[in-house]
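<instruction>
Derive structure tokens from the sequence
<data>
Labelled lines for chain and fold:
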Amino acid sequence: MTTVSPPTRYEIAAWCVAAGLLFLILKLHLLSALLAGLLVHQLVHLLAPRLALIRIHRTRGKLVAVAILATLVVSVLTLAVIGAITFFRSDAGSISALLARMADILDGARGKLPASMADGLPENAEALRHTVSQLLREHATELQMVGKGVGMALVHILVGMVIGALISLREALPSETLGPLARAMVERAHRVGAAFRRIVFAQIRISALNTTLTGIYLGVVLPVLGIHLPFAKTMIAITFLVGLMPVIGNLISNAIIVVVSLSYSLGAAVGSLAFLVIIHKLEYFVNARIVGSQIRAAAWELLMAMVVMEAAFGIAGVIAAPIFYAYLKDELSSRNLL
């Protein structure tokens, strides 16, 4: 085992500052800005080696090249966000229409389900509307903040992408002489970025695999069997987006697909559930192989981190848990503590 020198007071201070900043990011609801900035920064770093094909020797030329690359990355990501919002607001991918259809399906499912299961569903559409209305009244304050929250999240994402691009531009300049605390803080930032790259890029691959299998099931297998489910494209898009969240995303997409399958028959719903359980088991294995190998963590470690972070910070904690946990393990491993 390699001997590690005791941490300096600057490193200890940098750890404390990094921990405080990560806590404040969650407490102040700035996770979307952090993730957007890290995504732009990591994509620029991923694509920057391509610039080596262009022989750029002068600092100004490199700066211009990185600026163009960063602008392209921000533009593509912005267009992707706008495209997703446009799709989910259109008639073809309307989330509200999907939720309304799911409510109707559950309303009509009482005659298809066993009595023991049907007793847990609302008696009719009026009872369902009453239940929803009661929930809306109980959470009226939170719901009033939803529109504002979504708007602010989009602003945070845009600002985060711009900050990530600016940091990439700064790194294209000649390196400056930094003090000991600044060097320690830069190292912490690099470790957070590396944790983000390992976790997020791995989860994108997992979500893409899950979405591909789900798309084959909804778009090929079921139609061959004569089953054409409504909102298939919407469910495929939702599967990819929520699949970026480990475990919980899979549960959300599975629940939607099973409920919509009830619109055809109970057998279709059972078949969908069986198929999705198989996908879920496959995703569990792939997650353990890809994500676990990236941070040398077992699946139960990630699940425990997600449970604890969800209890402390809600859904933002679930999203941040794998990244923060990977960063923590990296710090501890670098000191030979694990």
